[in-house]
Amino acid sequence: MATYPAVTPLPQESPVQAPATQQEYQFDKDTAMRYLGQVSHNGPRVYAADISDKWLIGDSSGGAFLLALSTGAAMDAFADRHQKHPISLNIFYLNKAPPGPCVIEVTDLKTNSNGYAVAQVVVKQVHDVSLETPSPATLADYNPDEYKTRSHSIFNMGNMLTELGITYTNQETTVEPPKLENMVQKKPPFFQTRLTQGLDKTMKVARRDKTTKVETPGETEWRHLIEFKDGRPMDFKATAAMADTAIPTAWNLGNDKLGGPCWTPTLHIEVQFRKIPSGKSHLGKFVTTHIINGRLSVDAWLFNEHGELLAIARHHNVIIPWTIWAKNSNKL
After folding, report:
1. CA-to-CA distance for 155 and 174, rounded, in angstroms?
2. Largest CA distance in the chain
3. Are 318 and 265 in contact (CB under 8 A)?
4. Domain topology for 180-329
5. Cα gap 125→144, rounded to integer Å
6. How do 309-318 and 117-126 pair as beta strands?
7. Residue 267 to residues 129, 232, 283, 317: CA-CA distances in angstroms?
8. pTM for the full model?
9. Is it true that domain 27-158 has CATH number 3.10.129.10?
10. Neighbour-count burial for 1-40, b at 16+ CB within 10 Å, e otherwise
């Protein structure tokens, strides 16, 4: 049975704490992790955490939560280095992540004194994980042969406070943020205990004629205002999560066009951070231009409440029936 080599003498079982001003926020409690240690000097740093049952889509974790865990681990691993900020990330969702314990490995791929650095972040769980599964207490309790990869990410890390260079916006092609005055509050279908949502009342959604019963498809675009219910401010970890927190754009086509209730699980996302996040809300715009053979891309722009662009993202999704995605189809 393969195991990792001896552990270097680094701090063990240390909790990864959120900043003091954030410790009371639920999102930080949900994404809390413990540092177990580093596997050799060039090996991965290993963290223990839990997949929260408050961030599920159907019976497994939403991609937003895995993004948050991965970003939090990457930033902790770089906390004492020059590259404190995620510049971009690519995450592949390889397997469903049910609620229960997980480990997160952060491995350096490229180090740098002052330039950009690259790291790999992998979220793993034991094969038959459940809420009753014990979490590894020390690095010695972690046997990688018993674990299955749930998500695999590559992070480009840098320091936005020291970046220099031209700043330019093409006014003819730039994307404008959704308008605050168009937002009407509506309960989100997922993560209701954690988030509040405002929807753009000008969105064209699918509508069914009461007389003819014919459903007219809407537009494959989603615009919203989203924030934490407890008022937690936005930061890199939250912005990463919000890049994958939106109602599927395909839903606006309606069930008749889609062939019934469906989900659009994300295969892969790229997120590029444009500036250090600020504010307590995100204005999000998510647009799909093509759906071909059930696969679609979603381009996303995330702004703060002042209209400043914080991040852009591109999703690669596939449309599948909800009954295939979730064991309990009544949850939709």
Report:
1. 26
2. 73
3. yes
4. Porin (2.40.160)
5. 9
6. unpaired
7. 22, 28, 24, 6
8. 0.90
9. yes
10. eeebeebeeeeeeeebebeeebeebebbebbbbbbbbbbe
Q: Minimal CA–CA distance to 142: which of 49, 56, 64? A: 49
> β-pairing, 309-318 with 295-303?
antiparallel
How far apart are the C-alpha atoms of 130 and 107, rounded to whole Å?
26
Query: Residue 89 pLDDT > 60, yes or no?
Result: yes
Query: Strand 281-287 and strand 215-216: pairing?
Result: unpaired
Residue-averaged pLDDT of the chain:
91
List the beta bridge partners of residue 185: 198
Q: How far lies 158's CA from each of 43, 111, 145, 273, 299, in Å?
A: 21, 11, 33, 11, 24
* Helix, strand or coil, per DSSP, at residue 265: coil
| String of DSSP letters for 55-93 | SEETTEE-HHHHHHHHHHHHHHHTTTSS--EEEEEEEEE
Q: What is the location of CATH 2.40.160.210 in the chain?
A: 180-329
Q: Phi/psi class of residue 259: alpha, beta or left (left: φ > 0; alpha: ψ in -120 to 50)?
A: left
Q: Is the pLDDT of residue 7 over 70?
A: no
pLDDT in tens, 242-295: 999 999 999 999 999 999 999 999 999 999 999 999 999 999 999 999 999 999
DSSP string, 270-330: EEEE-S---SSEEEEEEE---EETTEEEEEEEEE-TT--EEEEEEEEEE-EEHHHH-S-GG
Instruction: Tell me whether strands 262-263 and 320-321 are parallel, antiparallel or unpaired.
Output: antiparallel
Say how far apart CA 181 and CA 200 lie, in whole Å: 9
In the three-class reduction of DSSP (H, G, I as helix; E, B as strand; rest coil), residue 248 is classed as coil
The first and second tokens of residue 31, run together, are 């994404």
